[in-house]
Write a structure and sequence with these properties.
By secondary structure, the chain is of the alpha+beta class. The chain has one domain. The protein is built from 2 helices and 4 strands, in the order ββαββα. The chain has a two-stranded antiparallel ribbon. Strands 3-4 form a two-stranded antiparallel sheet. A hairpin with a 5-residue loop joins strand 3 and strand 4. The protein binds zinc ion (ZN).
């Protein structure tokens, strides 16, 4: 029985989705979560969302996103 919708991919990315639909669903969930977090920063410009999906050479689908480090630096500057 399959309990997760992604698996490690041979290209080295940990989250490899089997098809485009699964990747898009996961992307939607990730963006919804980020939107909820962004709403906590009132009066602040929305955080850029550069997330998208792509198909790699091994036929799996992956998500790309703004680097975690860039996001954390922005949050840190707001909190200061
Ligand atoms: Zn891959």
């Amino acid at each position: 029985m399959k309990t997760v919708d992604f698996r490690p991919c041979e290209c080295g990315v940990k989250r490899g989705f089997l098809d485009q639909r699964a990747a898009e669903k996961a992307l939607g969930r990730a963006q919804a979560k980020r939107d909820r977090q962004a709403q906590r920063w009132e009066g602040v410009h929305p955080i850029h969302r550069e997330n998208r999906i792509y198909e790699c050479d091994y036929g799996r689908w992956h998500l790309t996103k703004q680097s975690r480090r860039a996001y954390e630096e922005r949050v840190a500057s707001y909190a200061a």
